[in-house]
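Structure (tokenized):
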């Protein structure tokens, strides 16, 4: 999840829990840290997330730019994205 509002992060996590969706969730509070993570996935031999919950109004790198960069990565370009 890429969201700079901790209140919104809490709401999403509560919704996932109430829907009995138990998963590992990573939270990035700005677009730059999320881009860094996605660019390092291949190097660190980790898997791309199955789903990205993305706020469009982010500090440092805005959501549309983050999404454009994500789609350009061959190893994570097909990650499902929910824009909020």
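Design, position by position:
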């Amino acid at each position: 999840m890429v969201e700079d509002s901790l209140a919104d992060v809490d709401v999403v996590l509560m919704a996932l829990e109430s829907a009995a969706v138990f998963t590992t969730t990573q939270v990035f509070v700005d677009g730059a840290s999320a881009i860094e993570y996605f660019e390092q996935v291949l190097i660190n031999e980790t898997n791309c997330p199955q789903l990205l919950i993305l706020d469009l109004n982010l500090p440092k790198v805005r959501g549309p730019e983050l999404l454009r960069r994500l789609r350009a990565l061959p190893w994570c370009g097909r990650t499902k994205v929910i824009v909020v």
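Reviewer-requested clarification: The CA atoms of residues 15 and 21 lie 9 Å apart. Residues 31-44 form the longest helix (14 residues).
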